[in-house]
C-alpha cells in the first residue's frame, strides 16, 4: 500500500479515551494491527497491502503517535494504552477480531487479550521489528494473519495454543 492510498483511507474514531486515528480498508473478518512506541499504524502498510483484498484491515494510532493526540493527564502506561485499544474496539463495535501486534504493541495487545478475550478470534504477536523488517518477515506476518483462524494464540516464532 503506498502512502497516498494509506493517507486517503485514514479516519478518526471518537472513543471514551478520546479521538483515535486509524486506517480501515477491506472487508470481512477484522484484523486489528497495533504498533509499538515511536511508530504509528503506518508501520503496517505493507502487511495491510498484502491482506486488504481478503480481510478488513484496521491499523490504529496509539496516543502521541500518528493522528491520535494525547489528552491532559492521560494514562500512557501499557495498561492505559490497552484501554485506548479496548475503547477503540468498542467504538467500532469490533468482534471476531484477529489482533496483530509487534514490539511494545505486543505488550499492549496482551493486556487487551486478557481483558477482552471474548472480542478476539486470534492474537498474533511478532518480534520487535516484524512489520519493518525485509519483506520475508512482513510476508510471514501476512501469512500468519491469513491462517491464524486455526489457533487462538500465535507468534512469528513458536506457536502456542491456548
Structure description:
This protein has helices spanning 3-8, 45-51, 78-91, 104-115, 135-147; strands at residues 10-15, 18-25, 30-34, 56-60, 97-102, 120-126, 153-155. By secondary structure, the protein is an alpha/beta fold. Strands 1-2-4-3-5-6-7 form a 7-stranded mixed sheet, sandwiched between helices. Helix 3 (78-91) crosses helix 4 (104-115).
What is the total tally of β strands? 7
Q: What class would the helix/strand composition place it in?
A: alpha/beta
| Weakly predicted, low-confidence segments | 129-162
Spatial sequence of strands, sheet with the most strands: 1-2-4-3-5-6-7
**CATH superfamily annotation:** Alpha/Beta hydrolase fold, catalytic domain
Element order, helices and strands? HEEEHEHEHEHE
Distance between the termini: 33 Å
Strand content: 15-25%
Q: What is the CA-atom radius of gyration, in angstroms?
A: 14 Å
Fraction in helix: 25-40%
Amino acid at each position: 500500500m503506498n502512502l497516498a492510498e494509506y493517507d486517503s483511507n485514514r479516519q478518526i474514531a471518537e472513543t471514551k479515551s478520546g479521538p483515535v486515528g486509524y486506517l480501515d480498508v477491506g472487508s470481512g473478518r477484522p484484523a486489528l494491527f497495533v504498533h509499538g512506541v515511536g511508530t504509528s499504524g503506518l508501520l503496517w502498510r505493507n502487511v495491510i497491502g498484502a491482506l486488504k483484498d481478503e480481510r478488513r484491515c484496521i491499523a490504529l494510532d496509539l496516543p502521541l503517535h500518528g493522528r491520535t493526540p494525547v489528552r491532559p493527564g492521560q494514562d500512557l502506561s501499557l495498561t492505559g494504552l490497552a484501554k485506548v485499544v479496548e475503547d477503540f474496539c468498542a467504538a467500532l463495535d469490533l468482534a471476531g477480531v484477529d489482533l496483530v501486534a509487534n514490539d511494545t504493541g505486543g505488550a499492549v495487545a496482551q493486556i487487551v487479550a486478557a481483558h477482552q478475550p471474548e472480542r478476539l478470534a486470534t492474537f498474533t504477536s511478532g518480534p520487535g521489528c516484524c512489520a519493518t523488517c525485509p519483506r520475508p518477515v512482513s510476508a510471514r506476518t501476512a501469512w500468519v494473519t491469513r491462517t491464524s483462524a486455526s489457533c487462538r494464540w500465535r507468534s512469528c516464532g513458536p506457536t502456542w495454543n491456548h
